[in-house]
Structures are given as C-alpha cells and as structure tokens.
Amino acid sequence: MFVETSLGGFFTEATHRETIEEYAKEGWRLVQVLPTNYNGHGKPTHYEVIFERLVQTS
C-alpha cells in the first residue's frame, strides 16, 4: 500500500503520524518512507509511506 503524506513545513502541518497510526490499526506494517517532491532548496516536501500486510487466501 502506498500513501502520500507530509512531514510538515513552514505553512503545513505534519500528517505522517496520523497516517501511520491509521493504517497500523488496519493491520498494515510500515516498511519505508520515500521523499517524492522537493522544494527549490532540495528539501523534501512530500513523502510516500509504504505499508505491507499478509494477504489471506482461502
């Protein structure tokens, strides 16, 4: 599962903790966080949070 999130900035609030907690409640496990967009100074502004969980087959 790939989910976009923000770690906050001068004008924005961080949403990464809420995102991780929300998906953890549904059984997803955090795998990695990757920066996806950068500002003019090379600082990441948006991130993709990658989750995984076992697929149940019957």
* Total helical elements: 1
Radius of gyration: 13 Å
Share of helical residues = 10-25%
Q: Which structural class is indicated by helix and strand composition?
A: alpha+beta
Order of helices and strands: EHEE
Percent of sequence in beta strands: 35-45%
Number of strands: 3
Q: Tell me, briefly, the overall form.
A: elongated
Q: Distance N terminus to C terminus?
A: 21 Å
Low-confidence stretches: none
> What does the average pLDDT come to?
84
Strand order of the largest sheet: 1-3-2
Largest sheet: 3 strands, antiparallel
Overview in brief:
The protein is of the alpha+beta class and 58 residues long. The chain has one helix spanning 16-25, and strands spanning 2-5, 29-38, 44-52.
Task: Report on the architecture of this protein.
By secondary structure, the protein is α+β, with helices and mostly antiparallel strands. Helix content is 17%, strand content 40%. The chain has one helix and three strands, in the order E-H-E-E. The protein has one helix at 16-25, and strands at 2-5, 29-38, 44-52. Strands 1-3-2 form a three-stranded antiparallel β-sheet. The longest helix is centred in the middle third of the chain and has 10 residues, at 16-25. The radius of gyration is 13 Å and the shape is elongated. The mean pLDDT is 84.
